[in-house]
Amino acid sequence: QVKLVESGGGSVQAGGSLRLSCAASGVAFSSRCMGWFRQIPGKEREGVSTTDNNGSTNYADSAKGRFTVSKDNAKNTLYLQMNSLKPEDTAMYYCAASPRFARCPRPTLPSVEATFRYWGQGTQVTVSS
């Protein structure tokens, strides 16, 4: 059974940092596209980053220069380091995994969510001004 579990969310003041984790079970990261997404209540979910099998990551403009994705294949865990957080980063953050050998599109493409088959339950990030 495939399961993705996010953790590390919380409340932080603007300018602070958080590190999100996505622990996977039942699915190996190898040969998969991994993504981070976020959703603000009342808005559509948006892509934050996509990371291919080689560890190459594409970021949404809102994340560039502030967020960094890393992964530990041995631990089957994906990380999202978020620095210089802003109130507009407040959202529920989700990780997602594609089927094996799927292409890994940029996170801002309109159809990016269709790439991903497996989703976590999300972790809330709240940034206060």
Account of the protein in words:
- The protein is mainly beta.
- It contains no helices and eleven strands.
- The chain has strands at 3-7, 10-13, 18-25, 34-39, 46-51, 57-59, 67-72, 77-82, 91-97, 118-119, 123-128.
- Strands 2, 4, 5, 6, 9, 10 and 11 form a seven-stranded mixed β-sheet that branches. It has a four-stranded antiparallel β-sheet with strand order 1-3-8-7, with no helix packed on it.
- A hairpin with a 5-residue loop joins strand 5 (46-51) and strand 6.
- The termini are far apart.
Share of helix among residues?
under 10%
Distance between the termini: 40 Å
Provide the residue-averaged pLDDT: 95
Instruction: Provide the gyration radius in Å.
Output: 13 Å
Kindly estimate the percentage of residues that lie in beta strands according to DSSP.
over 45%
Given helix and strand content, the structural type is mainly beta
Runs in which pLDDT lies below 50 for 5 or more consecutive residues are: none
Number of strands: 11
The count of helical stretches stands at: 0
Largest sheet: 7 strands, mixed
Instruction: Tell me, briefly, the overall form.
Output: globular
Order of helices and strands: EEEEEEEEEEE
